[in-house]
């Protein structure tokens, strides 16, 4: 299963790289060489400036986010000759590290907190459990707002949302091995809350800046994240039944992370550390922040080296890397015939990602760090991607209805095709194929 996950994530990256190689000289390049909009029309774009003999001449390109991170030990030319493979391995390893710290420590500490506070399952699912399952996306969004000042965080949220609603449901339909019946009420209820969230995101992303007051009007449904927690428990209980070479390889690869977390974070699932759940919560949160920082750093370098914009890296590679563990959990639940739980798992995660994953860092930036300021969404193509996200919800529900509320192989093929169409259109939009939406990224010999 580990090899399948790695192969899938690398395939997504390969598709994004191929698309960038094909399209880099078409619409996006023509926009940069031809009509160049004034910087006032793109307040979120940071234009580079080249020193010439007679003064400063602005370039019609955007400063890469790689400048916001520590200097890499490899030059851009060395990375293009093969050193970028080390960065890809580091990013994949951070995906694994985030999955381990969230499942084994962070979620466990949150469960203990819920027990001490005597919270109901719905309330716990809507608050603490949701934070546990979506922590990587949340910290990626925080890093995008406060460090890179770019669109990698928003792209990750949007990409994860599409991956969850299309790719995960598609995988469940293709590999569930049985026809799983879905409940009309559950699907409509979850889709309705999800639609409200996407509409709110469209409203704030279509403006020049993002104001925090526009997205505090929606609430999160607790039953969805309760389904996620139950699905992860089933995933953990089933892993022990299939011991083999793959599991041994996964343990060997994960051993450094397991040792690091074992030494630094008390496991409150054990009796002797049960009272240290708050310490476990704090330390695991710090590790999630550290792993997320390295993850976004590596992905930014990979995108810069391969010439892939931050938005596309967020929609494809980061989204797949942070959501593949959820995909496996939903597939295990679907194989047990619990279709409503599998679908609620995907939709509930999306609601939290959009409203909290974007709302929290935007609120901190505009209300605490710099009161009254705005968070700029650099790429105007993200607005179109969010609209495509809303369309994917409608088409998915329509497909489920036409398929008579059954999750089967046909529905799986249908939604996987929709996922491919979304990726194609998002990449084409980002490269200005249909209309000019943003400036290209500056390429330098770093």
TrEMBL record:
Regarding the membrane, this protein is recorded as: Multi-pass membrane protein
Annotated InterPro entries = K/Na/Ca-exchanger, NaCa_Exmemb, NCX_ion-bd_dom_sf
Give the GO biological process terms: intracellular calcium ion homeostasis
Domain (Sodium/calcium exchanger membrane region): residue spans on this chain: 88-204, 279-427
Q: Name one GO cellular component term.
A: plasma membrane
Would the keyword Repressor be found if you checked this record's keyword annotation? no
Keywords attached to this Swiss-Prot or TrEMBL record, sorted alphabetically, are:
Antiport, Calcium, Calcium transport, Ion transport, Membrane, Signal, Transmembrane, Transmembrane helix, Transport
Q: Which residues form the signal peptide?
A: 1-21
The chemistry this enzyme catalyses reads: Ca(2+)(out) + K(+)(out) + 4 Na(+)(in) = Ca(2+)(in) + K(+)(in) + 4 Na(+)(out)
Question: Which Pfam family name is an example for this entry?
Answer: Na_Ca_ex
Q: Where are the transmembrane segments?
A: 84-102, 123-147, 153-180, 192-209, 281-306, 312-334, 346-364, 384-402, 411-429
Q: Where in the cell is it found?
A: Membrane
Name the segments for region: Disordered: 214-243
Keyword presence, Iron: no
The similarity annotation says:
Belongs to the Ca(2+):cation antiporter (CaCA) (TC 2.A.19) family. SLC24A subfamily.
Could you identify this protein by its name?
Sodium/calcium exchanger membrane region domain-containing protein
């Amino acid at each position: 299963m580990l090899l399948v996950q790695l192969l899938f994530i690398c395939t997504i990256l390969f598709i994004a790289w191929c698309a960038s190689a094909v399209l880099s000289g078409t619409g996006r390049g023509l926009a940069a060489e031809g009509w160049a909009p004034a910087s006032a029309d793109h307040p979120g774009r940071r234009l580079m400036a080249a020193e010439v003999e007679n003064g400063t001449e602005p370039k019609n390109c955007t400063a890469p986010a790689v400048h916001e991170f520590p200097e890499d030990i490899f030059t851009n030319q060395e990375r293009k000759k093969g050193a970028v493979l080390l960065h890809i391995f580091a990013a994949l390893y951070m995906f694994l590290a985030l999955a381990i710290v969230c499942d084994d420590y962070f979620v466990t500490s949150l469960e203990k907190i819920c027990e001490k506070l005597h919270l109901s399952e719905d309330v716990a699912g809507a608050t603490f459990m949701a934070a546990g399952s979506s922590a990587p996306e949340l910290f990626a969004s925080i890093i995008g707002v406060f460090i890179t000042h770019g669109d990698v965080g928003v792209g990750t949220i949007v990409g994860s949302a599409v991956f969850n609603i299309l790719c995960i449901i598609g995988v469940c339909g293709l590999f569930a091995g049985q026809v799983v019946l879905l409940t009309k009420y559950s699907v409509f209820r979850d889709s309705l809350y999800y639609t409200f969230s996407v509409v709110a995101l469209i409203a704030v992303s279509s403006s020049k800046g993002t104001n925090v007051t526009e997205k505090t009007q929606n609430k999160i449904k607790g039953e969805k994240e309760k389904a996620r927690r139950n699905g992860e428990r089933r995933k953990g209980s089933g892993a022990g039944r299939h011991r083999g070479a793959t599991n041994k390889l996964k343990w060997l690869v994960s051993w450094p992370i397991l040792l690091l977390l074992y030494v630094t974070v008390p496991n409150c699932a054990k009796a002797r550390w049960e009272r240290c759940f708050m310490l476990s919560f704090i330390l695991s949160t710090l590790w999630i922040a550290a792993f997320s920082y390295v993850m976004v750093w590596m992905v930014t370098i990979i995108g810069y080296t391969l010439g892939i914009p931050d938005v596309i890296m967020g929609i494809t590679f980061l989204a797949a890397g942070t959501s593949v563990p959820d995909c496996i959990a939903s597939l295990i639940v679907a194989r047990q015939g619990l279709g409503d739980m599998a679908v609620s798992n995907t939709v509930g995660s999306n609601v939290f990602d959009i409203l909290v994953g974007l709302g929290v860092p935007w609120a901190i930036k505009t209300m605490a760090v710099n009161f009254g300021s705005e968070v700029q969404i650099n790429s105007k193509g993200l607005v179109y991607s969010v609209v495509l996200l809303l369309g994917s919800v409608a088409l998915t529900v329509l497909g489920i209805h036409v398929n008579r509320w059954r999750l089967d192989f046909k529905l799986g093929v249908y939604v996987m095709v929709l996922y491919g169409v979304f990726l194609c259109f998002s990449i084409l939009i980002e490269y200005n194929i249909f209309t000019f939406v943003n400036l290209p990224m500056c390429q330098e010999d770093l």
